[in-house]
TrEMBL record, chain A:
This is Cytochrome b. It is found in: Membrane. Its main location: membrane. Residues 234-371 form the Cytochrome b/b6 C-terminal region profile domain. Belongs to the cytochrome b family. It comes from Dyella nitratireducens. Residues 7-220 form the Cytochrome b/b6 N-terminal region profile domain. The main subunits of complex b-c1 are: cytochrome b, cytochrome c1 and the Rieske protein. The chain crosses the membrane at residues 37-59, 89-110, 122-143, 149-167, 188-210, 253-278, 298-315, 321-340, 352-372, 395-414. It holds the Pfam family Cytochrom_B_C. Binds 2 heme groups non-covalently. Component of the ubiquinol-cytochrome c reductase complex (complex III or cytochrome b-c1 complex), which is a respiratory chain that generates an electrochemical potential coupled to ATP synthesis. Its cofactor is heme b. It is a multi-pass membrane protein.
From TrEMBL, chain B:
It comes from Dyella nitratireducens. Pfam families: Cytochrom_C1. InterPro entries: Cyt_c-like_dom (IPR009056), Cyt_c-like_dom_sf (IPR036909), Cyt_c1 (IPR002326). Coiled coil: none annotated. Residues 40-212 form the Cytochrome c domain. It comes from the Bacteria. Keywords: Heme, Iron, Membrane, Metal-binding, Signal, Transmembrane, Transmembrane helix. The chain crosses the membrane at residues 219-237. Its main location: membrane. Residues 1-24 form the signal peptide. It is found in: Membrane. The gene is petC. This is Cytochrome c.
Amino acid sequence: MKAGSSIGEWVNERAPGLMPVYRKHMTEYYAPKNFNIWYYFGSLALLVLVNQIVTGIFLTMNYDPSASGAFDSVQYIMRDVEWGWLIRYMHSTGASLFFVVVYLHMFRGLLYGSYQKPRELVWLLGMTIFLVLMAEAFMGYVLPWGNMSFWGAKVIVSLFGTIPVIGKDLVEWIMGDYLPADATLNRFFALHVIALPLVLLLLVVLHLAALHEVGSNNPDGVDVKHGPKGNRWDPTKPADGIPFHPYYTVKDLVGVGLFLAIAAFIIFFQPTFGGWFLEHDNSIPANNLVTPLQIKPVWYFTAFYAIVRMIPSAFGTAVWGVLGMFGAILLLFLLPWIDAGKVKSIRYRGTGYKLALTLFVLAFFGLVLIGTDSTEELIPMLFGPSVDVTSVENIFGRIMVLIYFGYFVFLWLYTHLGWEKTKPVPERVTTHD
Amino acid sequence: MTKRYISFFVLALGLLLGTTAAMAEGPEMPDAGTNIRDTASLQRGAHIFFNYCVGCHSLKYLRYERIADDLGLTEDDVMSNLNFTGGKFGDPVISHMPEDDAQKFFGKAPPDLSLEVSAKGANWVFAYLNSFYLDPKSPIGWNNTVLPNAAMPFPLWELQGEQVPVFKQAKPGDDPEIESLKLLHAGKLTPAQYQQAARDVTNFLEYASEPAALQRRHVGIWVVLFLLGFTFLAYLLKKEYWKDVH
């Protein structure tokens, strides 16, 4: 105890700014006391990010980023490196769970209007994290240099080829060759292990800093900062706020434990997750002469990939699908300005909003199914074996694309034209436990 | 409120796991019934592999030493009963067949089988080993219903015997479709014994595609139990801290 406090004093004398920073973000950051299960996913995303960085460091110690050595080195890690299989499965499962957690975290934002004023900057930084994460995951997926890595890289990079005039040159510039090759693998490795993780870390710090400036939203969408003042710790702080540490650190610990138990179950018992987390075709080395039966990205990209596939070519170019895909992400960025709702939380919003959000989520799942080609099996199961799968898929998929984009159009009309009938929002946060 | 969220989550997770389980295996194939913890089956499978398959197919990611460790065999067992290629104990399993010759004989080099089960699934490999038939039209005399026009002759014919196709009634002008295969000449093994042999080879190849699978389930059960215990303690800690939040 004595030694501890004297070390503390020693540091404090030399860096008096450290403790105030700690207090501002931990013991004196007053978070609303009514967070529910949806509020676990932010801290879980941070946990997965740390997992990806730590396991990634160990993987790079044995991975060979060359077209001739990459595939073999992954098998070397799986078989000859002590606990190498565990490190790789933690990394590959972590990648998929990262997206599970981030998608749920984003959905929380939609449920409770966390993107609305004054948290637009928090949302923009979060969306930027999502975009960088997609690039990071895509490049990571190419590194094992299996056949799906190769063809996935070829298809995704060639999306840029649909851009008129510069497309073809752009594709060669990205890959450094005419096909995904050694040069591509080298640069994707560099970007995946150095460049993008640094950007991600910086963005996460900014995301949290921006959040702590304005304070956290909550399931009631009540701004505790503007509510009554005075709690047990500080008479000037929100009455409905509790210190992040220790209250939410111990609460998040429960979420962490449960999440890790689920993750461990996958890692140790279902590491490929039936081909969803690690695809069967990636057990075959990259081969530019053998095309896999179905080329499809990993599940977390498939909703956006399905948008590309469902939007038909027109006026002699296929660029519309690609524009649709980027548009689908851009619209999410713009949500704080599309939604002019007077009320944040879905608990007090109009029926139209509840209906629209439900349809939006269903459309997203529908697009995931199309993008993973699960529809190849689902459609004959539902409509009988004689049905024309492609045409049913096209009709179904285009309806899903219309609903996806329709959500934003509807939301703009609904809130800007004042059609929304909201319920009264309580003065203080409500608790249910 | 919390209860509703939790039941929603459990439901969503159940749905997800259900769909993924349903879609894990591709087109319906009979279940291979493999079990990599059945060491005797792995040993029998290894025997068949090293007597009939290694002539053409390598397992370049699997070392003899690893086989000995995982299958409960001694160095001597492996080196005198399984290793016919002259490799050292610490070497990977590399077939003797030169790639140029293979190219000449079959028109295609025989693939390495280290990851065959990871790539195709155990059921596929099991079905493939059961689906060879005599085909006079094929340059090698053999064909396969699971992988039509496979460039591979059937090395296990002396075990299974020789199968011939039974054709469906076809419209005039169409090629008749194969309805089933029937045994023309019996082999050394009865059909039931051959099924078991094919299952054993498949089991061995499943092991070869991921030797760590033996280890990970062993460790995994303790990790999951520890984490559940940890979660319970964390929950008690949370309750204690939150007693005074109303």
